[in-house]
Design brief:
Blueprint lengths: L8 H24 L3 H12 L6 H8 L3 H13 L3 E6 L2 E9 L1 H21 L5 H24 L16
Antiparallel strand pairs: 1-2
């Protein structure tokens, strides 16, 4: 990658990965008549039992809350999701995948494994561990800045919880 890109590399890589991931999703979207946001929501909910609410989907994906609500409603009508009251906070609603959605999860997981295998081709475990350590330091620095400037940049996470 060109040196002139400097600090933009990370964002460029993230953008490129997203574009390729969305392209890889096309057959899945067509097969199940799902949109890209719906595939993302299924993927998100399949990988997170703690952040299984519309609020977290919006916060962690960057989608607007209204858009997330529209997709969630559509997915509940389509039988992909169910919404239940949170036993710890009756005002909060938790989202759960239905059996219909769980059949898609396997295909998304398989696609993700192939995608990760391809983009990480030639990258050693040691290099991945180093990258993870660097990301943790960047995360800590961002958290420091946000606390000092009182900027809310993250959902409620445990103090020592790592980024996943």
């Amino acid at each position: 990658m060109e040196k002139e890109l400097g600090g933009v590399k990370f964002f460029l890589l993230a953008y490129m990965c997203r574009q390729i991931w969305q392209e890889n999703c096309k057959p899945l979207k067509k097969k199940y008549n799902l949109g890209p946001h719906e595939v993302y929501i299924i993927k998100f909910l399949s990988s997170s039992t703690k952040f299984n609410s519309a609020k977290y989907i919006a916060e962690l994906s960057g989608m607007k809350k209204g858009i997330v609500s529209v997709y969630i409603e559509k997915m509940m009508i389509g039988g992909w999701l169910v919404q239940r009251e949170d036993p710890e906070d009756r005002r909060a609603k938790k989202l759960f995948l239905t059996d219909k959605a769980k059949s898609v999860v396997y295909e998304i997981s398989k696609m993700d494994e192939e995608f990760h295998s391809t983009i990480l081709n030639g990258v050693s475990k040691e290099e991945l561990n180093t990258a993870d350590a660097v990301y943790e330091k960047i995360y800590a620095n961002i958290k420091n800045i946000s606390e000092n400037k009182k900027i809310d940049v993250q959902p409620n996470r445990g103090e020592n919880e790592k980024i996943s």
